[in-house]
Every structure is written in C-alpha cells, then in structure tokens.
Design brief:
This protein has 316 residues and is of the alpha+beta class. It contains 13 helices and 13 strands. Helix content is 41%, strand content 20%. Strand 3 and strand 4 form a beta hairpin. The chain is globular, with a radius of gyration of 20 Å. 46% of the residues are buried.
Length: 316
C-alpha cells in the first residue's frame, strides 16, 4: 500500500496545539505537576541525557549534549515554544544509569528523555512517544571472528551488561558462551578493542556509536538480522497525555519532513543515523521506516510556518 498523503491546512496544526493547552491548563487542580503547566510557568524544560551513548546522547568536544536524541529534544522545545507562545529553554541533567533515568522521568523529576529503547518493563513506569528509530541486539566483534550463529558464540568471551536484554539474549542463544560482565557497553567495547574479549553483545546503535567514537577499525556487528528488535523513542511521565501528544506532534513533523525531503529534517537525522552519519543507515531504509510510523497517524501537510519553527535552534 503506498504512503498516503493528506491535505492539512496550517490552521489545523495551530488548533492541535491550542487543544492540547486547553486540555491541561484549566485542569491544574486535577494534575498539579503536569509538564505543560510547569513549563508554561517556568519557561524551562528539564531533560534527562545519558552522557556516554553516542550517537543518541553524549557530550561533544565542548561538553554540550549532542546526538540524535538531543536533536529530537530541540524539536520538542520548538513545539512547546510555539504552543505556549513564549521562549522555552532546555536544562539537560546528565544521568548515566538507564534505570535511574527511567525512575526520574516516571516520578516527574525530568520531563523528557530521548533515544530510549522500548521495553515493556520501562513502559510500566513511563509513557513512550512515537518511535524515532529502530534498534536491536547484536554482537560487535572483529570481522570474520563471529558470524552471529550460536555455534560461533560457543566458548567465546562475550562482554555484556548484567541484567540487560543483551545478556539475556546471549544466554538464550548460546548458554555456553563465556559471559564477561561490564558496567556499561562503553567499557566492554574498550576491552574488546584491547583484545580482552571476542565480542560484545548489546544494542546495535550504541555498539556502533561507541566503536565509531573510539575510532576502532575492523569491528562489525552481526548477525545481519538482530536477535531481538525494538523501537527507540522518547519517554515522558505517565498519564500526561497533553505533553506526550505535543511531543508526538514534534516527532511527527520531523519524520514527515524527512519523508518529504525537507533539508533541515534530513540533516537532523542523517548527521547521526544516515548513510554518511555514525550508523550509516541507507536513506531509503530510514524513509521506509518513517513512512510506516506515519501510516498509523494523520500525515502533516502542508508544512507551514509552525513546522519551520520546529527546526532545532540554539538554546541555553
């Protein structure tokens, strides 16, 4: 079935934002901690950011948050500014422990975190937005050493994070692999580079990003199809549908812009994910996935001034 295109006047986009606000701001007594109400009052969006997970979230050479997840945060920031009619700043708080990140978003201490792999356990604590990409569990290893089959893993020293999906998959695929625990995938990739491991099992995007950031050569991810596949998105506090809807609108604009070939949207995604980016994913594959996400919703068309304002902008 071809990707459907609908005509959507820009007035409809403005109406969406106003409807979101109308549903939240008068109901402050019912939900005093609602994100939109707090942001409308303070002018600040507090975001959790994992500092060591390139290309999704990391600190650049100037010590500033960067990555694909941060690009999406900037889109949400712009959408909030348009909806609330005032400038909005973003305050990033570094959170290295994924479980702690989910806990703090779930408690409302953080309003948003982007680039978080989906899991049902996390979904019981927070709400997920529209996905911004796909990932899965694979093995990072020197080319030709491991092909991803159970037999190729037998007796091999494979690094994994205890309690992670990667560790669970490794034990399920090949119980006779020698699991070597590491606090994080970054440390495991460093050990692999030093020849202390035969491979590292974990999230494909994070393994590729970490290997790229270290400048490693000769390492590949296998098998071609991940052992497990899942969506990657943003997380927001549970039961705050107005903020989640607004975040979804910002994400939908980005995905639609990429599908339409909008230069700003394409640059925002391809810098990190695209064929010349960190992950090197073909543009057509990205476009096909974004289309599949948008087919479950109304296409945003045409993209008027509100959409243009959703491009990432510099902010304190």
């Amino acid at each position: 079935m071809p990707f459907c295109r609908f005509s959507s006047p820009s007035l409809r986009l403005t109406s969406v934002a106003l409807a979101l606000l109308a549903g939240v701001l008068p109901a402050t007594a019912a939900r005093a901690g609602a994100v939109l109400q707090r942001v409308a009052t303070s002018g600040e969006l507090v975001v959790g950011s994992e500092p060591l997970l390139p290309p999704l979230s990391f600190l650049d050479s100037k010590g500033q948050p960067a990555g694909y997840g941060v690009e999406v945060v900037r889109r949400v920031q712009a959408e909030l500014s348009t909806a609330l009619g005032r400038p909005i700043t973003v305050r990033f708080e570094a959170v290295s422990d994924p479980a702690e990140l989910v806990r703090r978003v779930g408690k409302g201490e953080l309003a948003l975190a982007c680039g978080v792999p989906f899991s049902w356990a996390r979904d019981a604590q927070v709400d997920y937005t529209l996905p911004i990409g796909l990932s899965g569990i694979r093995v990072l290893a020197p080319a030709g050493r491991i092909d991803g089959s159970p037999a190729s893993l037998q007796g091999r020293r494979i690094g994994a994070v205890p309690g992670s999906l990667g560790e669970a998959v490794l034990k399920g695929v090949q119980p006779q692999a020698r699991v070597v625990p590491f606090a994080g995938l970054g440390e495991a990739v460093v050990a692999l580079q030093a020849g202390q491991l035969d491979g590292v099992m974990g999230d494909t995007n994070l393994l590729t990003g970490k290997a790229n950031s270290l400048g490693t050569t000769g390492l590949v991810v296998t098998p071609e199809q991940p052992y497990e596949r899942y969506a990657v998105g943003c997380i927001v506090p549970e039961n705050d549908s107005a903020f989640r809807d607004l975040a979804n609108l910002a994400i939908a604009r980005l995905l639609q812009g990429y599908v339409d070939g909008d230069p700003a949207a394409v640059a925002s995604v391809d810098r990190w994910v695209g064929p010349k980016g960190v992950l090197g994913v073909p543009s057509e594959r990205i476009r096909t996935y974004f289309e599949s996400v948008l087919l479950n919703y109304e296409a945003i068309r045409p993209q008027g001034p509100a959409a243009a304002s959703s491009a990432p902008a510099a902010s304190p």
